[in-house]
Amino acid sequence: MAYQVSVQLSPILSAFVNDHFKTRGDMSGLESLVKKLRRECADLDKNIGDLQNKLSVVVRGWISLSDDIRSLSHEINDKRKTFDCSLPGGEHGDAYSSKTEGILRSELPILAKEVGRIEIVRFYAVTTLQLEALVGDLEDVAFAYLKQRSRNDLSMCLSNVSNPTDMKWKHEKLMLAVKIMSNIEEILVNVIERQLHWSGLPKAVDSRVDNTFILVRSQALADHRGLLISLGWPPPLMASNPDNGRRLDISHPLFSMQEDNKETLSLSFISLCALQHLQGHREVRRNSHLGQKVYRNGSLWVFDELVSPIASMVEPHFLKWLEEPKFMFALVYKITRDLIEGIEEVLQPLIDKQRLVGCSAREAWVLAMVRMFSSFLKKQTFSVLAEDYHNGNENPKLMSLWLHLVDLCISFDKQMQTLVSSGNTGFQFQLSKGVSLLAIFCDWPNWLGIWAEFELKDAEEKFKPEVYSEKAWVLDVKRAAQDIQETPQESYLLSTREDFKAPFAAGRATQIAWTMIDRCKTLPDVLHQVQFIRSSAARFMQYFFDLLLWRRQDMEPLTAHLDDDTLIKIVSLINAARYCESVLHEWNDNVRFLEMKVIENESIGDIRSGCCPQTSFFAVETGYLMKLETDWLEEIVSGLLWEFNILIVNYVQNHEQWGSDDSLKRVLDPEGLMLSVDLVEALESLKDHLQILKTALNSKDFLDLWRSVAGGLDHFLFTSIILGGVKFSEWGSYQFKADIRALFRVFQPFCTRPEAFFPFVSSIVKLLSLAGEDASHLLGILSKVQLMKEWLRKHGIYHLHPDQAEKILRSRMW
After folding, report:
1. Cα 208 from Cα 188, distance rounded (Å)
2. Taking a C-beta distance cutoff of 8 angstroms, is the pair 791, 801 a contact?
3. 560 and 643 in contact (C-beta within 8 Å)?
């Protein structure tokens, strides 16, 4: 099979050839044209030599002048010292010395500045001569390197690139050019390090070196492509046995190379690596001079050239599979996987020989294949879909195809990671920007926004049918009660949705949000991960939180007569919010989110502006949930206290019962304690509600709830009865004590000593239980506040002020 090689000429060369060889008849004047060109080249060389001679004369003149001034300065300094020693003493001598010193102080700095300027000019001239000589040598070497190919016609290209002798000569010339360019770089770096503001000189040198470098690089790449073609690269996509249709092993061209070809490939590899290494140093020097950072994609030109013909070979297949993109991904993975072992075996030793630190043949091969495929996806798939989106042609098929492509990209990235990690390279592989297909969204931020929008819409569409079903919010109260009976010891270490007694909707919401967060994990840039999560997962969670609020607003408000069904529905929302808050706190403690929050703070400038940055990634979301939980718990506490207040209104307002000895309106509780009839219904209702809440509400929130209820009841009874001017007889004090003990029994299942959560009421009971002598003694020391406080503390009364204790004691009728 004959191979055709296209030689790309510069526009100037192409125009020159077209002007002189318009027809086949013009070929007869080739010899005269060559003589003319050689004559012109000789004239140009002569002019360059004349210019160099003139520059040398000028530089020598500057150097001679600099030496004369330096010697003159030393001579003046010596004469000044001799003259100062010969001056006589006295007033005239001192005056003359002062005058001379003043002249020297004003003149010497000017002279020194002039000497320094001359030194800089001398250094500039020497540097210019060195650079001119090196650039001239570089152009001569490059001309010889390029002339070697121009002497050969196109039919000999393939044979020449695989000729070891010819390639060895070219390699020597190319490495000589690289060495010269490296010397030029050292001089330019020295100029920059000395902080000499010679912007014109580096620009002039870079301009000439760039032109030469482009020509040399193009020629080296062309030779390398020709070498690959001569070796049979790329191999066919697939081979099959026509008899049984079974797949045969793909022959790897690099495996079947002869020794001469191996040597030629090695020389070509070394040449390209040397050129790329030199170009990297030149970019670092240029960008450091401009105060910019250099971002390298990590690819090697050698591997890009391996992939380039494969791209041309697979593109027609890709265009046929635009509606079925899974075949494109499968083909790229197959080629990458089938050829990676041969690539590593042949090229890894060359990489080691070149001492390319941190470079792996497997990773470089995968990187080149991913970059090739990424380029096609940008041009032919995502750009087309994005254009349809911006033109208003959005439809379910567009969103479905976009998300399907993202799914394939994520799966493909994982496959590429497996390929690189499976090699015996000793490197811990991490996805770099070039290796991940999702890097497309880093290059096109507006596509990232479209992806996040599609993810959010897709999540909401999947979630709505589930969340609008009442089954997603129902709490299994019977099962929760059974669990409490089986595990009577309350646990406050909650982790799972079942531990929080959260409805199915809460678990489903966090699961969908985490799926969206996990999908952007392979995005190479952390800040783009933050932007995606903020636009998708965070907005979805906020949508769920708003749904919780909407469901509460859609319920009946709590009244004095609490409805158990409404109470359980509110508890379901509290459990859902508490579970989501716990999940978000767990995510906040993840190292990944800690890193993202630091980078986000730096990007928005919170730290630099002096503001206090948020330390957790989901701080806004958790704060919103905590407010919802607090509001709903306070609503339940208020409802319980309100109902209790309504049910004991007669009990509180009947002050006469405490001052009389009538015991007709009494009933016996289970332990024989007398209990006020007006208090029975209130305590039974409170007990039933608390039992339902204990069964349905998560343990953490229930702990806060019953303690808040106990504190509210303590304050209510203290202000309503004691500070309401009630007088207690002996029987009345006993009755109050029995009623309070009955109240404590309501909270007995939740703690060992419920009286500890009723500090005011417990103190009242202690004071009313005092004997007459103790009460009289205490009333006798009321004027001595300090003694009164010590006595109260001694008897375990810490929450009452002496004035309040006096009022309680005086309410007792002895």
Report:
1. 14
2. no
3. yes
Which residues lie below 8 Å from residue 406, measured CB to CB, with a gap of 6+? Answer: 438, 451, 519
Residues forming beta bridges with residue 742, ordered by sequence position: none
Q: What is the pLDDT of residue 355?
A: 77
pLDDT, tens only, 75-97: 666 655 665 555 555 444 555 55
Mean pLDDT of the chain: 81
The strand pairing partners of 674, in sequence order, are: 668
Query: What's the rounded Cα separation, in Å, for the pair 96 and 101?
Result: 9
Confirm if 236 and 314 have CB atoms less than 8 A apart.
no
Distance CA 447, CA 528 (A): 11
Q: How confident is the model at residue 541 (pLDDT cuts 50, 70, 90)?
A: very high
The number of beta carbons lying within 10 Å of the beta carbon of residue 412 is 22
Burial label, 781 (beta-carbon count in 10 A; 0-12, 13-18, 19+): middle
Q: Which residue has the tokens 């016996």?
A: 668
Are 157 and 5 within 8 A, CB to CB?
A: yes
Angle, helix 677-696 to helix 477-486, in steps of 10 degrees = 90
Task: Name the pLDDT band for 567 (thresholds 50, 70, 90).
Answer: very high
Structure tokens at 654: 């009947």
Q: State how far the Cα of 227 lies from the Cα of 268, in Å rounded to an integer.
A: 9
* Residue 707 pLDDT > 80: yes
CA torsion sign for 279, 284, 285, 291 is positive
178 pLDDT above the threshold of 90:
yes
Phi, psi for residue 666 in degrees, rounded to 5:
-130, 150
> What average pLDDT does the segment 41-59 reach?
77
Residue-wise DSSP of 171-237: HHHHHHHHHHHHHHHHHHHHHHHTT----HHHHHHHHHHHHHHHHHHHHHHHHHHHHHHHTTPSPPS
According to DSSP H, which parts of 231-258 are helical? none
Whole-number pLDDT of residue 66:
67
Evaluate whether 484 touches 565 at the Cβ level (below 8 Å).
Answer: no
Which of 147-161, 245-259, 340-354, 490-504 tops mean pLDDT? 340-354
Structure letter (DSSP) for residue 90: S
Q: In 385-405, which positions are buried (b, 16+ CB within 10 angstroms) versus exposed (e)?
A: bbebbeeeebeeebbebbbeb
Q: pLDDT band at residue 157, thresholds of 50, 70 and 90?
A: very low
Q: Is the peptide bond before 11 cis (omega within 30 degrees of 0)?
A: no
Of the candidates 196, 222, 214, 195, the residue with the CA atom closest to the CA atom of residue 278: 214
What's the half-sphere exposure (Cβ side, CA atoms, 13 Å) at 131? 23
By residue count, the chain amounts to 814
Q: How far is CA 797 from CA 553, 617, 777, 783, 805, in A?
A: 44, 46, 16, 18, 9
Q: How confident is the model at residue 576 (pLDDT cuts 50, 70, 90)?
A: very high
pLDDT given at position 427: 45
CB 811 within 8 A of CB 726: yes
| CA-closest candidate to residue 534, choices 434, 439, 650, 449 | 449
Task: Say what the alpha-carbon torsion angle 319, 320, 322, 326 is, to the nearest 10 degrees.
Answer: -110
Q: What pLDDT is stored for residue 156 in this prediction?
A: 44
Judging by beta carbons within 10 Å of its beta carbon (0-12, 13-18, 19+), is residue 177 exposed, middle or buried?
Answer: buried
For the beta carbon of residue 700, count every other beta carbon within 10 angstroms: 17
